[in-house]
Amino acid sequence: MASILIPGEKWEAIFGAAKPKRKFKTTTEQKARRLKRTVRTTGNGKTTKRRKSVSAEPKEIEPGIYFDIPFAAYLAWPFVNNTLLTQAARSMAHFRFAEQAIDGKPTSAMQFGSLVHAGILEPKLLAVMPCFEDGIRRKDGSEYANPKATTAYKNRVAEFESANVGKRIVTAAEFESIRGIRESLARHDRAAEYLDDGPVEVSIVWDNLDSGIRCKARLDKWSEVSHRIVDLKTTRDASDFERSIRKYRYHRQAAFYSDGMHALSGQVHEFAIVAVETDLPFCVRAAPVSDEALEAGRDEYKRLLQDIAECRSSCHWPGYSDPDYWELPAWFRSEESVSLNVSGQTVTL
Questions:
Q1: Which CATH number applies to 8-104+184-313: 3.30.70.1250, 1.10.10.60, 3.90.78.10, 3.90.320.10?
Q2: I need a labelling partner for 6 at 20 to 30 A (CA). Which of 62, 148, 206, 312 fits?
Q3: Shortest CA distance to 234 belongs to which of 174, 296, 164, 193?
């Protein structure tokens, strides 16, 4: 079994820095829990202390569990993740392009979802921008039609950004929405339990033995004690979130992440999803992914990894296959009316 640790003797070679010291909370319970977590068993049966990663991109990435890796550094790791699997499901040509291309511009929904993640999982990384338009007037005291276009406003914003380098800057309106979501999650017993324990934004790297492909994943929340991976999702309608699971292949993500952690730790991990709506009253639904859904996702990601391995071997990245004929879609045919003769009368369906 592969060790989940970053080898101590390679620490400085990989990160170019000495091992950082961890800061523990002062309560006895917290000290006991953290102390328990610092000792892990490696594949050779020996025990060693787990290393906490530093905020720098490692020069060489080996299979393991990494902490405090900046998201930009994680994205630069040249391994297959669930986002690339989504492209592979479209075609191998799309996978190849996505693997080599710069990420596209995120949608507004994706951007807000990212802000919610930061606000819930890493609230210290948020900086709320004040209303800098206030007090910006012409020399005669009259108001500007668009104060945001003025040099004074731009200077205020630039100064604020310089004072908050490394933080996610949000508007007051965005912050109020995030605060409402936080309160809603805190009131939801299961979601609060899922999001209470364990480190956040944990990066893992492992080798898929069937395909020989090195993979990576970014876990929103990991509970080492409960053997649970938690993923926070934002949605417009949580009442029908099962449809989103199918549409966005979250069951494949669940199996991919769970199997990756199993490969590293030797422990079977539950994958739970917390779905929260982005509009008032910010309703929440939370549950683990079923074994049946995991199995379907597992079959899918394994097939895609095998296809990727074959394409890498052949250096052939096919796009779409051609149909025998262009046909009308099934939904169009189902909308066409059908006439039946019933007892001498014509009935149109």
A1: 3.90.320.10
A2: 312
A3: 174
Secondary structure of residue 23 in the 3-state scheme: coil
User: Can you tell me the distance from the alpha carbon of 23 to that of 8, in angstroms, rounded to the nearest whole number?
Assistant: 19
Q: Which residue has the higher pLDDT, 67 or 173?
A: 67
User: Are the C-beta atoms of 79 and 203 separated by less than 8 Å?
Assistant: no
112 close to 245: Cβ distance less than 8 angstroms: no
Measure the CA–CA gap between 191 and 174, rounded to whole angstroms: 21
Is-contact 204 229, C-beta < 8 A? Answer: no
pTM recorded for the entire structure: 0.73
pLDDT tens figures, 190-236: 999 999 878 999 999 999 999 999 999 999 999 999 999 999 999 99
Picking from 166, 283, 274, the residue whose alpha carbon sits closest to that of residue 220 is 274
DSSP string, 135-165: T-B-TTSPBPS-GGGSHHHHHHHHHHHHHTT
* DSSP assigned state of 80: B
Structure tokens at 155: 């200077």
Distance of CA 293 to the CA centre of its chain: 19
Length of the chain: 349
* Cα dihedral 81, 85, 87, 88 in deg (nearest 10): 130
